[in-house]
């Protein structure tokens, strides 16, 4: 506010100088130069006073006298406010101009740039840490557990065990599980055959089987002679040695009988895996187990345990620099590279802001009106004088100078005529 005051002082001094000059030249009217200067000072003084009156009349009554058509701004405050609001709404900040300016700005790029610049600050890392911990702490696990259990049940129920059985059958052969199973079986059989009590058991079973044969005549005589020679111990040893020989043959990789057993085993496994009744039975067993499973409590317990472990891990906040910020960097880099998506985001932002401006455009004028209405006449006049005072005071100075020059011309013309 220093400049308006200095200009106002200069305008006042111009009137003082003109008045002093006019008064100083009055005693010397007998001289032509004095009459010429007196006329110039007089005209300049009249022009300066007239402009002072006009400038003052804009804001207040000159000299406090309520002269008609003075104090124009206080009297026309409502008109001034309405004109200002109309100018702001319809000219300076109309909807079309705001929408046009917003559309020219790449708001999505500006937002991304601001995010990239701001997220590397310590304050941003601390904020991310706080938000992440609060998010983990506020997760409604009791409400999530039934949802997770229901989804698990649905996924397991929808899962068909048929392809799994077929895959297991193929893996049995490809991974050599059939050979391992056969070798394990043969090892167990060999171990059982080598036990001392096994021979007696086999002999007893063999003697019972032979004694039960129904034959007659010569065959009956031969059978009785054979039974008279044998007993449980001899019969058991014969059977055991025979079985041990068979086991030894099957344990040899090159023996054709081993390959035949493996081929038969694979065929049976494949047939079993592809059999409809087996698959349906396994699916039914699976579905019944799933239906009977009440897993809400166990799932909730595991989730609570996981939350405690996660919060313990997040305690020092180092995970933000290690995982969160690199993840955000990758996301922002991918987003910057996706120009199509970025353009769509920018369009959405512009549409949102434009819609917001259109819906609230009248509030701009209302805000101007409210701010103007908050000021009394004195404050409003002081504001106007502060913003326009310098130019208005120059009107006074220009009026005085112009009047002075015109006074010289008019006085000169009058002197010539006389």
From TrEMBL:
Domain of life, per lineage? Bacteria
Organism of derivation: Paenibacillus polymyxa (Bacillus polymyxa)
Residue ranges that the Swiss-Prot or TrEMBL entry lists as coiled coil: none
Q: Which UniProt keywords apply?
A: Membrane, Transmembrane, Transmembrane helix
This protein is called DUF445 domain-containing protein
Note one Pfam family from the annotation. Answer: DUF445
**UniProt GO cellular component terms:** plasma membrane
The lineage, from the top, is:
Bacteria, Bacillati, Bacillota, Bacilli, Bacillales
Question: InterPro entries annotated for this entry?
Answer: DUF445
Q: Where are the transmembrane segments?
A: 394-417
